[in-house]
């Protein structure tokens, strides 16, 4: 990759991109096109077919496919909040890759594209550490064309480049969170900022599932400011909502949810909602030790929430046989892969040890349940998945999901990162790009940022 700095900092020229769209149509009932992308020598499936009915759901919204974009300026709110290393290099570009179908759809139909996103938490002021420029560089590689970069969001540079934008061109605005009004708690401040962004475009597209649970100015106030102009979903948001809402509303059974992570309090609403609609909820991660505490069992020095014991008791009573807890626990005497390790029955962790993973008997039981499931939703690792050998439980569950014939949905965040790291991401039905957003969908919540878009 070579940056063209002859005229300015704004253009990125690419000569070695490897991006080729292919289209396949599967001949089974209720299938739809699969878009495959050759990306870094890997075949990456984007639109896995939806094995669900196409009937309208309460969240059915118009998509960019239904909008005439010829010679129109299309503002796409994307989620380019990608991880960067200490040198400002992108370490995981999956969120950029997943936005490509929407971007290419507009370009191929004669539109002009403005992309806006946040990156990190710059706290309402410019910080070079959080510039969007690396994402413009990577996007140019993937599109195999120059990408224009504006050094502000609604200032003179952005205004000039929007005005000069030509058909088939792409402009990436600087970090939305450089503007304090993006996350302001005052509606009038959000509205003023949103009006400036809305004035740039003829069409608004929400393709940022990772922030759909937020009401930032670019997510909610901008589509409101668009008035009667089209405001629609991008293909990524359509896919995310389709998978998660259909899985919850019309699951193939047995429907199994696997919930891990550190705290019961983080996922209380998720567990409560899933107990109402699933056949089983399997518990892993450190939250299992708060359930043990609620049962009067020994947890040693394990991470627990003593103030949530009554909450755990309520869930145990409500869950009954549906709520499945670990049978055994893989423990260590310190937070290290080289610590002294023991495996004990659940609820029998001795003093001086902490639970770091589900044990082998639990893993075996959970794998068996997953193999019988027709729909699986997984949110949260089974243990300290980044430190071997305490990644064994997470790996066993991930492999079982990958090898099953179920509709499998990985709910973003730590579980998405784990399944990527373990090499199973291309073997499941869907890996969500939004941790917090997918969690709130599993809670049964609606998103104001989606509700404001045009209905089908």
Keywords:
disordered N terminus; alpha/beta; Rossmann fold; eight-stranded mixed sheet; single chain; 456 residues
Folded structure, characterized:
The protein folds into two domains: 2-240, 3-Layer(aba) Sandwich (Rossmann fold), CATH 3.40.50.1260; 253-405, 3-Layer(aba) Sandwich (Rossmann fold), CATH 3.40.50.1260. Helices cover 33% and strands 19% of the residues. With 456 residues, it is an alpha/beta fold. The two termini are 41 Å apart. The chain is built from 14 helices and 22 strands. It has an eight-stranded mixed β-sheet with strand order 1-2-8-9-7-6-10-11, sandwiched between helices. It has a six-stranded parallel β-sheet with strand order 15-13-12-20-21-22, with helices on both faces. A three-stranded antiparallel β-sheet has the order 3-4-5, with no helix packed on it. The protein has helices spanning 94-108, 133-143, 156-164, 187-198, 217-225, 235-249, 264-277, 287-294, 309-319, 360-372, 392-403, 413-421, 435-442, 448-451, and strands at residues 2-3, 11-13, 21-24, 34-39, 42-45, 73-78, 112-116, 147-149, 170-172, 203-207, 231-233, 255-259, 280-283, 298-299, 323-324, 328-332, 341-345, 348-349, 354-358, 375-379, 407-410, 430-431. α12 links the parallel β21 and β22 (430-431).
């Amino acid at each position: 990759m070579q940056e063209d700095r002859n005229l300015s900092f704004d253009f990125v020229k690419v000569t070695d991109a490897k991006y080729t769209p292919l289209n396949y149509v599967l001949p089974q009932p209720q299938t739809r096109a699969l878009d495959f992308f050759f990306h870094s020598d890997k075949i990456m499936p984007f639109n896995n077919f939806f094995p669900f009915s196409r009937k309208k759901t309460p969240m059915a919204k118009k998509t960019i496919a239904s909008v005439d974009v010829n010679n129109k300026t299309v503002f796409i709110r994307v989620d380019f909040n990608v991880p960067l290393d200490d040198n400002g290099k992108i370490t995981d570009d999956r969120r950029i890759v997943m936005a490509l179908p929407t971007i290419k759809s507009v370009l191929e139909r004669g539109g002009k594209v403005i992309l806006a996103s946040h990156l990190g938490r710059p706290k309402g002021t410019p910080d070079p550490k959080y510039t969007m420029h690396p994402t413009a560089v990577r996007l140019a590689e993937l599109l195999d064309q120059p990408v224009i970069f504006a050094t502000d969001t609604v200032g003179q540079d952005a205004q000039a480049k929007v005005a000069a934008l030509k058909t088939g061109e792409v402009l990436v605005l600087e970090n939305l969170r450089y503007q304090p009004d993006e996350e302001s708690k005052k509606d009038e401040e959000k509205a003023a900022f949103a009006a400036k962004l809305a004035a740039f475009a003829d069409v608004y597209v929400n393709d940022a599932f990772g922030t759909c649970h937020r009401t930032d100015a670019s997510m909610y106030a901008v589509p409101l400011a668009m008035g009667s102009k089209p405001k629609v979903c991008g293909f990524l948001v359509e896919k995310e909502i389709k998978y998660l809402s259909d899985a919850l509303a019309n699951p193939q059974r047995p429907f199994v949810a696997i919930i891990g992570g550190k705290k019961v309090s983080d996922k209380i609403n998720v567990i409560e909602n899933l107990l109402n609609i699933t056949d089983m909820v399997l518990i892993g991660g450190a939250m299992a030790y708060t359930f043990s505490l609620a049962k009067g069992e020994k947890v040693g020095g394990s991470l627990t929430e003593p103030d949530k014991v009554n909450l755990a008791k309520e869930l145990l009573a409500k869950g009954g046989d549906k709520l499945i807890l670990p049978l055994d626990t893989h423990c260590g005497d310190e937070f290290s892969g080289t610590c002294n390790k023991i495996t004990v029955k659940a609820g029998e962790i001795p003093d001086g040890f902490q639970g770091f993973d589900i044990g082998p008997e639990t893993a075996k039981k959970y794998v068996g349940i997953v193999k019988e499931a027709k729909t699986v939703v997984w949110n949260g690792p089974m243990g300290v998945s980044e430190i071997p050998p305490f990644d064994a439980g997470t790996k066993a569950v991930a492999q079982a999901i990958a090898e099953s014939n179920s509709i499998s949905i990985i709910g973003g965040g730590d579980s998405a990162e784990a399944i990527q790291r373990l090499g199973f991401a291309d073997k499941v039905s869907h890996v969500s790009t939004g941790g917090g957003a997918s969690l709130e969908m599993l809670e049964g919540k609606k998103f104001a940022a989606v509700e404001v878009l045009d209905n089908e």
